[in-house]
Every structure is written in C-alpha cells, then in structure tokens.
Amino acid sequence: MGLLVDGQWVDRWYDTRGNDGEFVRESAKLRDWVTPDGEPGPDGRSSVSAGPDRFHLYVSLACPWAHRVLIMRRLKGLSGLMGVSVTSPYMLKEGWTYELEEGSSGDPVNGVRRHYQLYTLTDEHYTGRVTVPVLWDKKKSRIVNNESADLMRIFNTAFDELTGNQLDLYPAPLREEIDRINDEVYDRVNNGVYKAGFATEQKVYEKHVTALFEMLDRLEALLEERRYLAGEYLTEADIRLFTTLVRFDSVYYSHFKCNLNRIEDYSALSSYLRELYQWPGIADTVNMSHIKRHYYGSHPSINPNGIVPLGPELDLERPHDRERLTGKGIWQHDA
Ligand SMILES: N[C@@H](CCC(=O)N[C@@H](CS)C(=O)NCC(=O)O)C(=O)O
C-alpha cells in the first residue's frame, strides 16, 4: 500500500501517528465531469461528452466506494456501454494490481499491471493516493474522475440519451434529504468503519465505534418507518449505505472491531439489507470472496498472518418483510 509522489510510487501506510491516531481520508483529486454534450458539470467543472464507447471503469470488487459505482452502472443500464477492469483483491506493496492469477480480470484497455500506472499515464508527475474506482476516458487517454460520489451522479444522468434509461436515483425533490443523509452516513458509517478500524489509539477507536453504532441505531429507527432512507423511493443514499452494510458482518465486525452488534441483530436494517441485495442486478455485484480476501489479506498491521475467517454464513436470499412499508421503486426522470 502506498502513494505516488511526483509520479514515483512510494510504499507507505497511512500516517495515523501524525494525526493523533486518526485515519484521515485524502480527498479525491481528479474531478472532471461527463455530460451529454460536454457542457460544464456542476459548479462549472470541466467536462467531457458522453459517448457510446468512450469510457472504461476500473474497480475493486472488494471496495465499498467502487461497489456503489458498479451498482449504478447496473441499475442505469450502462453495462453494454462501458467495460470494467477488476483489480486483484489484494492491495499490498504495489497497491492495487491486475494480477490474473489472484482473481483480477486484467486490463484490456491499457494493459497496465499496476493501478498507479493509470494515474501516471494521466499525469506523469501525479502526487497523491491511488484509489479505485476510476473512470477512464479512452478518447483522451486519461482518468476523468476518481471520486465515487461524482461517478454515481455522472452515471445517473450523463448517458440517458444513449441508453434511454430514465431512472433517477437523485431526484430533485429529494435532494436536500438525500444530501443530509449522505453526509451523516458517510461520516459515521461508510468512513466511520475505516476510522474505527485504522485507528491506532484506543480512545480514537472508541470514539468512532460509538458514533457508528449511535448512527446505526438511528438508521434502524428510521427504517422501521420508511421503506428507504429518503422515503418511498430507492435513491443513491440507499446504494451508499448498502455497500457498507453488506460488508459489515463478514468484515467490519471482526477485522475493524466494529462489534457492538452485527447487522443481523437489527430487525429493520437486516431486512432492508436483504431487500437491496435481492433487488434485480444487485446480488451479481457482490463478491464476498474478493471482499474477505481483500480486507483480511491486505492490512498486515491489523491481521499480520492474513488468515481469512471461514464465517459467518450469511443468507441474504431469505425473505425480507419490507413490503409492509409503502415503496415506489426508483423515481423516473419524467415522473
Ligand atoms: N474518495 C474515494 C475513496 C476511494 C478509496 O479510498 N478507495 C480505496 C479502496 S476501498 C483505495 O483505493 N484505497 C487506496 C489508498 O487509500 O491508498 C471514492 O469514494 O471514490
């Protein structure tokens, strides 16, 4: 695990010592947009135009941030329009790689063996963390964007004219509520499990685990009343929560020591997790082997021998009881 410094790969773990035992996630740096005609994106950001064979997605099936984007690709019918390269589950000295024998798909587009090469192809002096997911522009031979929150929004609208898909996972009337939920879920849940798991001071770990379970209790109460986080429609907020929930009992509970409860112990949250897992197309995006091998095998400071636990045995296919709450599926753009 490492980062690029002026285009050179440096093998270095996160610096928690310099932050009083806290893991601080670096913000993504490549933030261009994709729009139907290449007109500027939100906040006037520069943009490239959507095209049928222009983009390629690089993901790890283990990574919850990449997973959100893979789900959006599926729900928005983009699979035929945009190929995907899957990394090896392991992220070790050279960072993410495309080693076929470890379970990577390889990289048919650029033929790179190490994920950081995509960053140096984009900018030979790149400095910063080298993360998945990444959206690659085949026309300009560079990364367009490496922030999953942006990629979800791009996929929600940019290609609609090409696909005819009208589903809207960020509908205008619900945006304020979605943004509010996303902020808290990001801080306490999505990134909260990492802040607990990568903490190197007891009090820091306890602070983040406490905040995480306070939030899970609040989400449990909300989901007792609401079918989905923002109400009756499934939105991006649900996808963002799902990718953490589906990893929780297998990984975050034990590997990151987030073990006050399992998701299975919450009635509404566990049923909600099963409903989302059973949503058409979603189960196919979940690869528990990559998920477990990645976490237990890529963090030697937490799990030095890399032993991958056999359990727990989860049955996400069993019935859920969410029909008792009103649900209207996914919003349509022209609804
Ligand atoms: N802000 C990014 C974060 C992505 C991220 O941190 N991905 C992890 C994998 S789960 C990664 O690639 N980490 C490598 C590193 O931090 O060096 C996003 O949401 O797209």
From TrEMBL:
Residue numbers marked as site, Lowers pKa of active site Cys: Y252, Y295
Name of a matching Pfam family: GST_N_2
Binding-site residues, glutathione: W96, R129, V130, T131, V132, E147, S148
CDD domains with a match to the protein in the record: GST_C_Omega_like (cd03190)
Bilayer-crossing regions: none
Cellular component, GO annotation: cytoplasm
Record-linked PROSITE patterns: GST_CTER
UniProtKB keywords: Transferase
Active site per database record: C63 (nucleophile), Y194 (proton donor/acceptor)
Signal peptide region: none
Domain GST C-terminal: 171-295
MF (Gene Ontology): glutathione transferase activity
Full protein name: Putative glutathione S-transferase
